[in-house]
Specification:
The structure is a single chain. It contains three helices and five strands. It is an alpha/beta fold. Helix 1 links the parallel strand 2 and strand 3. The N and C termini lie far apart (29 Å).
Length: 107
């Protein structure tokens, strides 16, 4: 099954994003305005998935988010995978923020 995907350059600045990385990765650096729901908690917290159409799903490099997009699509959510994940997001100069005022990093 192919997963709907979009390059970072194709994501609008105000696009709804769901970051599915674990808490330590999120704390180190994430896109401003993104929502956080770790992949490991997705099934238990499925009711917290935003109803945005489309919902851009991101992880570190695009692997976990592709799995989440496939799962969400099966549940009827219009989700799209962010190709290359936060690594490409940061490399292209998109904004990244960290929790607690630390210097943002993609880990």
């Amino acid at each position: 099954m192919s997963v709907p995907s979009v390059p970072v350059t194709g994501i609008p600045a105000d696009a709804p994003m769901l970051d599915v990385r674990e808490i330590d990765e999120w704390d180190a650096g994430h896109a401003p305005g993104a929502r956080h729901l770790p992949m490991s908690q997705l099934v238990a917290r499925i009711n917290e998935v935003p109803a945005d159409d489309p919902l851009y799903v991101v992880c570190r490099s695009g692997g976990r988010s592709a799995q989440v997009v496939q799962y969400l699509a099966a549940q009827g959510h219009p989700a799209v995978n962010v190709e290359g994940g936060m690594q490409v997001w940061a490399a292209q100069g998109r904004p990244v923020v960290a929790e607690g005022g630390a210097s943002p990093a993609i880990v």
